[in-house]
Write the structure tokens for this entry.
Amino acid sequence: MNFVNVFWLFLSACFFVAFCAHKLAQRLPRRHLTGRAHLAFQDLIRYGKTKQRVQRDVRVRALEIPKRWFWHFYAISVLWNGLLLALYLSFTFQQRALPSWLTGLIDIVADAPAGQVPQLSTLLVLVLLCGHSARRLLECLLVSVYSDGVLHFMQYAFGVFYYVALGLTVLTADRLGDGTGPLRSQLAWFHGAGALLFLGASVMQHQATVQLAGLRKGKTGAVETLAHVLPRGGWFELVSCPHYLAELLIYVGLSLAVGGLSLTWWLVVLYVLFNQGLAAQLCHDLYASKYEAYPRHRKAFIPFVL
């Protein structure tokens, strides 16, 4: 198993353990929930509104970053993955070799010989990833309404590193791809299926983002409150966090776009499942405890399941 697979498997395992630990902590006596280890754990897995009830030391608060800085992640992704896309386009259509610093970096994480033929799957996923990052950047800057929520500095650093690692992961698929000949000859049904699922999930995520922002805006579009309001309607009738469910479907779409047989990409999907599942569960628990009339049939993340 190459390094990139070990990396995504490790992240998946970490968030799976964190999810299980959170569920287990809910069953423990209250006296076990005030220890330093438990509070430090909660501080690391929570952010934004789910962090408000966590007691934090003054020294810990000094390491907190405003949640509204989420846009930094997507700005970095647009720049970095846009650069990778530009280099791959040059490789694809102008037959220019990828720069040595990039191939050397990929050699570190991919245990496979360098690809000599441009892969349609790699090009498609890079385009979709850049489009996703650009949309989320615009939503963060123009749509979302952030309160005074925060995240830990380590969460911020991980978010920056994540999108850099994700772009490199896309290029490792090029090392493992088996497409030959011109791009048109490589076109297959799974490219269309993956792109369609990606686009449908993106629309679903955008609608949920607009809906959440609308809870804090008046009829004129001006922000009227920063309070957290119970979301209703649409996918919110089935799950507490449809935007997290959409994120999972987006990555399933990307996995399909590379053929649906890439172990690396299914490990990425597994990571997103546990990462977004944990975030959704924390939000769901908060809503259920805050609103007495919170619909009991709603699940946190996956309709009728989780």
